[in-house]
Design brief:
- With 243 residues, the chain is mainly alpha-helical.
- It has a domain of 92 residues.
- The protein has 10 helices and 2 strands, in the order H-H-H-H-H-H-H-H-H-H-E-E.
Length: 243
């Protein structure tokens, strides 16, 4: 007969998760899934608007119908899951950027701030960009820098590129070429064409010495340049050292 201690290893212990807690988690998953479905429908409608709005009247009935569809779906996503930051961000864009019926820029700004405070990187980047406007009555540079850094923490490519430009020019912060290079490098890895160009340009100027304790190896070369669909050249760096 097997010892009781050995048998005990194969006996399942009673679950410490209560059925009520399991039902809560299941309900939360269901709400998240429903919200994502609404966001996808709204995003598809908005994508179609972006495709045709430059070539037609913004007040055309087809565009207005698509904008209403997008707005309704983003609002339904928030009703399904009030904690969804993506729905907040896209709804804020609708209110602030598009001629959607019932648009309110104040509502859009409030939604954008909420989404940024809740940790959405797209919202943090957008809010940082909005706060960088010149205003004699509002000192917003430091606030913009705060939200851009939050987006950079999540490796948002646009925020990385913009923060790299800020460090490179010394605009509102101390000039720091090493930090600028790091930002451009990470943004280029994420596919940002402008950052790749800036990073390649700094490499060609020999700025990489700042990040290296030893002289540059001959392997630090720009080995390929190609055209992206935006018409921009992207430098691909071969055999570079990870810092």
């Amino acid at each position: 007969m097997l010892p009781r201690a050995l048998l005990a290893k194969f006996i399942l212990k009673p679950s410490t998760v209560s059925p009520f807690q399991f039902n809560q988690q299941r309900a939360l998953h269901s709400r998240n899934k429903k919200a994502l479905e609404f966001i996808a429908k709204g995003w598809n409608a908005l994508k179609e608007v972006d495709r045709v709005i430059d070539y037609s009247d913004p007040k055309h009935s087809g565009i207005v119908s698509l904008l209403r569809t997008a707005k309704e779906n983003f609002e339904l996503a928030l009703e399904a899951d009030n904690t969804n930051t993506h729905a907040r961000y896209w709804l804020s864009r609708l209110h602030m950027k598009y001629p959607v019926p019932g648009a309110n820029k104040a509502v859009g700004a409030a939604l954008l701030v909420e989404a940024a405070e809740m940790g959405d990187p797209e919202a943090q980047y957008a809010l940082g960009c909005h706060l960088r406007v010149e205003n004699d009555y509002v000192q917003s540079d430091q606030q913009a820098f705060y939200y851009l850094e939050k987006a950079v923490d999540q490796l948002h490519p646009g925020a990385l590129y913009l923060l790299g430009a800020v460090y490179l020019t010394g605009d509102c912060v101390r000039k720091d070429i090493a930090s600028a290079l790091w930002c451009f490098h990470r943004a280029s890895e994420k596919g940002h064409a402008g950052a790749a160009i800036a990073y390649g340009s700094l490499l060609l100027k020999g700025k990489l010495f700042i990040l290296c304790s030893s002289p540059l190896s001959p392997n630090y070369v720009v080995y390929h340049c190609y055209r992206q669909h935006y018409g921009l050249s992207k430098f691909m760096i071969g055999n570079y050292r990870h810092f």
